[in-house]
Write a structure and sequence with these properties.
Layout: E1 2-5, H1 6-22, H2 26-38, H3 42-61, E2 71-79, E3 82-85, H4 89-103, E4 111-112, E5 119-120, E6 128-134, E7 139-146, H5 148-152, E8 155-159, H6 164-179, E9 187-195, H7 197-207, H8 219-233, E10 248-258, E11 263-270, E12 277-280
Parallel strand pairs: 1-3, 2-6, 9-10
Antiparallel strand pairs: 2-7, 4-5, 7-12, 8-11, 9-11
Helix pairs in contact: 1-4, 2-3, 6-8
Amino acid sequence: MRELDVGRVSDAIAALAVDACCNLGEDVIRFLDQAIEREKSETGRDVLVQLLENARLAHDKRAPLCQDTGLAVVFLEVGQEVHFTGGDLETAVNEGVQRGYTNGYLRKSAVADPIGARKNTDDNTPAMLHTRIVPGDKVRVTLAPKGGGAENMSALAMLKPSQGRQGAIDFIVDTVSKAGSNACPPIIVGVGIGGTFEKVAYLAKHALLREVGSTNPDPRLAELEDEIERRCNLLGIGPAGLGGTITVMDVFVEELPAHIASMPVAVNIQCNSARHKRVIL
């Protein structure tokens, strides 16, 4: 059994918060750079150039990529041979978020009493925490700041099994179409299929952690991802919603078995500021 002080989790999350909000992933930068040549709209190409320049300035000045530094979505993959010491794990996660967002001068976007007073919690807590127990004695910490614009355009549907593959595709593409410019394209489309009402939403969120340009190891799902991406890009929404051929960076699908009477489908949209960073403790 390996002992790990929860203070190390706090330290990691505080650092990841600043890193994720200020440094765009190399996979996204690579996509934007290559997309400039493929985008048929002159305005769309100008937007892509500006997004790359924004990423460069954010990195050089250690400033947020976007003013909306999001809610802190934290994924913990905890090795079953790890024994945490020094306090409560969830408290440590929130302490890391508080420190990262406060010391890093990142905008705090969490409000308590969301259908009432909507008072800011002042430190961007609580974290949206997802924990899995996995084999081993390591802890994999991933922090994914999630802004409101793209999150607001996400959707979930409990489709009828008879609607099948085509029904799922139509719902996903319709969700992207309705999002339009509000989701700050080019976007990443995370898709969950199967499971239950709450699990399918998690699948869609977790799918966003994949590397842009990666191929689904399941050929059936890889084909589905390609078809959804093709149809979304035919919508003509384009970069920043100003028209063009590059509306979607990538589509990622995660799947689970479902109840015989159900076909849950969830779409979690990620804006062009596709931020997530991870560390292994």
